[in-house]
Design goal:
GO molecular function: DNA binding
CATH topology of the domain at 21-74: 434 Repressor (Amino-terminal Domain)
Protein name: Transcriptional regulator, XRE family
Number of strands: 0
Number of helices: 4
CATH class of the domain at 21-74: Mainly Alpha
Domain HTH cro/C1-type: 28-82
Mean pLDDT: 86
Structural class: mainly alpha
Strand content: under 5%
Low-confidence stretches: 1-9
InterPro entries: Cro/C1-type_HTH, Lambda_DNA-bd_dom_sf
CATH superfamily of the domain at 21-74: lambda repressor-like DNA-binding domains
CATH architecture of the domain at 21-74: Orthogonal Bundle
Order of helices and strands: HHHH
């Protein structure tokens, strides 16, 4: 099984396009590890369960969005939506 890589972009320097739950999970996992947090640490901070963190990081498509926004905030990230550019 090959390790997941980030979608195109660099989380520290430019926006990353999220096209799937797998993309979101990969970004959150990289950010959590960069901050040297365990899944348990993040779950405690965000007030959610470790199972939810595991599911989200693994790209579970039915993961609830509300807790995901809390995790995004705790990881020092933000979500921005804009109109898609058509080339």
């Amino acid at each position: 099984m090959k390790p997941k890589s980030l979608p195109l972009g660099n989380i520290d320097h430019e926006p990353i396009r999220i096209r799937s739950t797998e993309d979101l999970g990969a970004v959150l996992k990289v950010r959590r590890k960069k901050q040297k947090m365990t899944q348990s640490d993040l779950a405690a901070l965000a007030g959610t369960g470790v199972r939810y963190i595991v599911d989200l990081e693994n790209g579970k498509p039915t993961a609830r969005i509300g807790p995901a926004f809390k995790l995004i905030e705790w990881l020092g990230l933000e979500v921005t939506i804009r109109e898609k550019k058509i080339d």
